[in-house]
Amino acid sequence: MTASRGTLFRTKTVGGLMALTLAFAASNVRAESHEEVIEAHGYSYFGNLDYPADYEHLDYVNPDAPKGGEIALGASGTFDSLNPYSRKGRAGALTTLQYDSLIEASTDSVGQYYGVVAHGLEYPESRDWVIFHMRPEATFWDGTPVTAEDVVYSHTLFIDQGLPSYAQAVGRMVTGAEALDDHTVKFTFNPELSKRSRIETVGNTPIFSKSWFEADEDRRLDEPRLEVAVGSGPYRLDSYDINRRIVYKLRDDYWGKDLPFNKGRHNYGTVRVEYFSDQTASFEAFKAGEYTIRIESDPKLWASSYDFPKIESGAITKYELPDGSPPNPTGFVFNLAKPQFADRRVREAVALAFNFEWTNESLLFGLYEPRSSFVQDTPIEAKDVPTGEERAFLQSLGDVVPPELMSDPVRTFHESNGSRLTDRGNMRTASRLLEDAGWTVGDQGIRRNSDGTPLEITMLYPTNIQDSVDAMHETYARNLEQLGIAVNLQKVDPSQYTNRRRERDYDMMYTTRYGAFLSTGGGLTQMYGSEEAEFSLFNPAGLTSPLVDAIIDASFEMQTQEETDTALMALDRALRHEFFIVPTGYIADHWVAAYDMYEFPEDLPPYDLGYLDLWWVNEDKAEALRASGALN
């Protein structure tokens, strides 16, 4: 039976999403120290929880989905570690399946979290602290209970040994973590910092076994290792073969399998990941039946290569499923620490050499959509010039807002003539910008500045990149060279690429690291904030902008969803103004090819395809495929 919703007081449209103002059906609000304390079964910043305390399961699952069967996925490249949180090495795929957290986000809403290891929580209106009440039945796979001490220890590990951008931000935010008893843990927060992202950040941290780490002083979170830290999650590592295969098995004794939040989830008996040297080998292996489901992101393959016999026979089914999330701001990112990019005119000129229209038609089969915004095609996408509440919000920030942000239309990506790679008008404009910036054409057609330094760009990308993106680099470089820019395309193996990406050893890099946003929180500072810009892996441009910082900080203080949406619209405008990405467009839907043995709920959640979490295997179909020889 579908879970009934919480008590509905009124419904309003906020940023194009239906935001429900709800009573906490199972909440108890009491007075303590002159401040109301909220007790609830979940958390959202504005207090809206779509599911009541007695919900039976999430609306978007099949609660009767059968358990068993296998999903096999393909990965390209290499791995040398089974520790997903190391600062070094390349972690194997899906190692995070092995860990639970206190709370977890639902994927049919934005910013709503429900209990997993925690069955409830309490916090004051100030959100200066939170207490999580844990389920005593939660156990690690070695049979030991998950305790509050494990939660505190895991939090401390991430502060002491986690990624620097996370450790610094959370270390400033959390002033105390203590186990009140075996199954009660309290976090105290810095009252001088934003209330945003406090509770969900500490609640969503993976939980490790303290005793496992303490049994060997060489076990560290920041070091690569092939020994897996003991977790309490639904899957456990079964076997691995370095650079070839990783296999996880569903735990028969998983303590949380009957939780309302988990019902209808974690349906595969086995999750297998097969590794291949590159995308070509991976695709051929899929056709041969070496793995069973492929989330396609290469438009060339999707448009021209899915016509092999197993497609025609129906052994493999193609799906185009809606994607409700705003597209990630993918593109060629400028390393803003490089001196040649300090002048915005140079960045403008370099961008003008990229012809999206030609690239889309000639390399991407016309399947990409153009992108200018960081929240493309959502109601918080900035438009034209700021007006109304957005204008008032920007005015409230004072002199940090440049006059042109208020007077000029929001930046949109240039259009090009798609009939040929080189758009002559854009190239002439780019040439003038470079001349104005002091880069003139000299010997051998190379541009140099007044010191005689040549204008050079090193573009870094891995050998296992998709063929269409590889071609995108080559054609983009061709146009840049016509402008007199010396381009060095450096295609390196995945491990070297990972190390150089971490060290920011590149001038430009094609990346999917930046994320879109529909809510505010600490993740924005890791991607776009100045304080962590020097070392954050999620800010490959190294963006440092007082304007962006001011907007993010102000967004933390917004008191309503409408005010938050206004701030995020202004953030979109500001990020586009700073101009640190040459956008390359996006795929509007999920492209999936799968052997005809998988089924999924009719109404998938808008913010997750759910193929790892919500789909299941029809064993009769799987057996028929094996009997026919379609699967290895």
Describe the fold and architecture:
The chain is of the alpha+beta class and 632 residues long. The protein has 18 helices and 27 strands. Strands 3-4-9-10-12-11 form a 6-stranded antiparallel sheet. It has a 5-stranded mixed sheet with strand order 22-21-23-18-24. Strands 6-15-14-13 form a 4-stranded mixed sheet. A hairpin with a 5-residue loop joins strand 19 and strand 20. Helix 1 (148-161) packs across helix 2 (164-173). It is globular, with a radius of gyration of 25 Å.
Structural class: alpha+beta
Strand content: 15-25%
Give the termini separation.
Answer: 38 Å
Rg (C-alpha, Å):
25 Å
Helix content: 25-40%
Walk across the major sheet and give the strand order. 3-4-9-10-12-11
Number of contiguous helices: 18
Oligomer: single chain
Major pleated sheet? 6 strands, antiparallel
Apparent shape: globular
